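Record type: monomer structure entry
Structure origin: computed from sequence
Chain ID: A
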Amino acid sequence: MASLGQGVRPYLRTLAGWNWNRQNEALKLGLSLQEETLTEMLLLQIARDCAPLGLKVRMFTRAQEHANGADWEWTFKSTHCTIALRVQAKRLYMSGPNAGRYGGWKHLGTQATKLIADAGTDYFPIFVFYNNYASQVFSRKPSHGFHGPSQWGCAFANAQDIEKSLSNWPEDIVDKMHPWHELFDLCTVAGRRNRLPGEERGPEAEKSSAVSVRNPLWLEPYGDQQGVEEYLEERGLAGVAYFDASEADVNWSSE
């Protein structure tokens, strides 16, 4: 596994490849990894790899069996800015009647509309897609800097773009996706507010606090498990994660 010390973008590409390979291995062994499992594995890997560099990771998940499809809140704090994300994870099914499609997603527009509404003005609403070789579309997709198809193992899309799509086939929405290492293009070294790729925003939307120095609300009762559980339940969240890299030895600009 690459080190975050080599740069944020190379590290996230490595994680995307790791996720791509884990799903492919699972298929060969007859296993099926759920969205929540993949998300938790990725966050654990980040915490394990990056703690020596000074990255602090805090995460809570909801203690229930059927959080299927529930959102996450991710907040990334660097020396330049803070990015707050409301995340809906979707995995590409590799077998069964939904093979080659994003399962559990019957009404794309409705689900995206709810994600946008739940995000409000405090969070960027995005979809994160866990992809694998079940679809050849990622082998044909331009490689964003001559990187292989495994960089699409973790991809994201602006919820406003997904809201307009009525298909759960990757070939119909891949043009709205970006490899997730491009997430940090939102946070420039100047610390100024950037748009999500494809995002159309008016003057009122520019006032969004999705990039700010404010800590997420759930950190207030940090250490009080019951308080965090109530926060997750009230907002219909599968989990929350806070990444504080404000004192980490990280190269934010490396390609």
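Annotation 1: The radius of gyration is 17 Å.
Annotation 2: The first strand starts at residue 56 and ends at 61.
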